[in-house]
Amino acid sequence: MNFITKLNAAWAANDSLLCVGLDPDIERLPVQFRDAPDGIYQFCKEIIDATAGLACAFKPQIAYFAALAAEGQLERICAYLREAYPHIPLILDSKRGDIGATAKQYAREAYDRYGADAVTVSPYMGSDSVEPYMEWQDRGVIVLCRTSNPGGSDLQFLQVDGKPLYQHVAQLVADKWNANGQCALVVGATFPEEIRAVRDIVGEMPLLIPGIGAQGGDIEATVRAGRTTSGTGMMINSSRAILYAKPQGGEDFAAAARRVAEETRQAINAHR
Amino acid sequence: MNFITKLNAAWAANDSLLCVGLDPDIERLPVQFRDAPDGIYQFCKEIIDATAGLACAFKPQIAYFAALAAEGQLERICAYLREAYPHIPLILDSKRGDIGATAKQYAREAYDRYGADAVTVSPYMGSDSVEPYMEWQDRGVIVLCRTSNPGGSDLQFLQVDGKPLYQHVAQLVADKWNANGQCALVVGATFPEEIRAVRDIVGEMPLLIPGIGAQGGDIEATVRAGRTTSGTGMMINSSRAILYAKPQGGEDFAAAARRVAEETRQAINAHR
């Protein structure tokens, strides 16, 4: 089953457009996980088990593992996801971008080593920096288009032939890089009008949308701008708001994460 | 000693603008290294020892290590470089680019974990994706500007206000991101006229120039276009042509690497 098919099935099975981001910042983990040798793995495993029924995808952010030399724990997390929840797409968020020979090594990292269904990539180095990923025909390539951070505008909003650069990226991916139907785009929730502009360019192509939760994006505006005719088409990511949800009543961190994930899923579904 | 000072000293000490790239493709290593548990480390160590007197920098490409789950060997290579050749800058080639909170993790990876003097980054996500690196005030940030690969033109050559995008990146780095004097730029040897255009924009800022050797860039044209008034200003990278140099006579791989590195250093110096 290829990435897009798997994603469509996960949207339906869990009635969810919520992508749960796994950004395990060691300083914010519950205290019992901070000093354990596999504390990051154990923490992420509990988050995964608590939210798997509510998510259309899981997205580990590799930077948090790389900073701590914890690639081994990321391998275990990915193996656990593939084994316990094989129907939920696993997206490796690594935003790689390099010349062809090097990109092939990064594709091996994402697809063979971690077994990811899809990987995020940067478009700055152009076509031959993404082509090597396409050799894994059942996997997905999620290209940065309009990012959710303030500095995103520095380049992405520069005007090229009367249109901002990010729209050229969307067009390039829709017209060329998506020839095999393996592509998706990253478009931040902090810019709903721009989600709409991208949706108009790319038709039914899936969008990975970071920026709700801790980054402050508006869920209603995001969903209205990004939904396809079938009311799907989006992986709306929340990381920190779920991972570090404040427990209420007798909740532990995992129950709090589940509650916030469920609230987010419902808030999204209210506007589909 | 900060990155730029260290680089200036290395240019002078070894009379060299040659950067030796460490891209250990397991399939191309001499057979004795392919199956050894630390074969990549041993291979790179021999290349480093053979070329350290001829190089102004070493640049490991992390993708080759990540594909093989060999980050531990990269850590050992970096530790060896810092210990045995502390006067030669260590550049981690990882081309990261992410939102601020994530970029900080990548900065930790490059500077704290691997002890790199500088790291390559992508500009696509803008200012807050590079600012976190600047907190390590003695380190360098090398921003992708005009890359050496064919697809580099897809975005970098788009016209913005009558100038190609890569020149806007050069201007942005020169005017803003380089406020603390920590920046350098990547400009490919495959486009000497564009090296000249970037040099005109950025003054004395160092340029990391890949694309000679296996990628076919012209050394004379590169040096004439990129040199500063002092005849330096460049880290001209060669990876595969040195690592996999064909032995002549009774040479082993390391002697062949040293010979090609010396030839390249001299070919560069002939035009400074």
From TrEMBL, chains A, B:
Q: What EC class is this? A: lyase
Gene symbol here is pyrF
The family database entries (PROSITE patterns) matched by this protein are listed as: OMPDECASE
Asked if the Swiss-Prot or TrEMBL record annotates the protein with the keyword Heme, the reply is: no
Protein name, entry field: Orotidine 5'-phosphate decarboxylase
Residue ranges constituting the Orotidine 5'-phosphate decarboxylase domain according to the UniProt record: 17-260
Q: Which HAMAP family match?
A: OMPdecase_type2
Q: In which pathway does it act?
A: Pyrimidine metabolism; UMP biosynthesis via de novo pathway; UMP from orotate: step 2/2
User: What does the record give as EC number?
Assistant: 4.1.1.23
Q: Which UniProt keywords apply?
A: Decarboxylase, Lyase, Pyrimidine biosynthesis
Q: Which organism is the protein's source?
A: Pseudoduganella lurida
Task: Check the record and name the InterPro entries matching this protein.
Answer: Aldolase_TIM, OMPdecase_AS, OMPdecase_type-2, OMPdeCOase_dom, RibuloseP-bd_barrel
Q: Which residues form the signal peptide?
A: none
Query: What PANTHER family has UniProt attached to this entry?
Result: OROTIDINE 5'-PHOSPHATE DECARBOXYLASE
Catalytic residue list: K95
Please indicate if the UniProt record lists ATP-binding as a keyword.
Answer: no
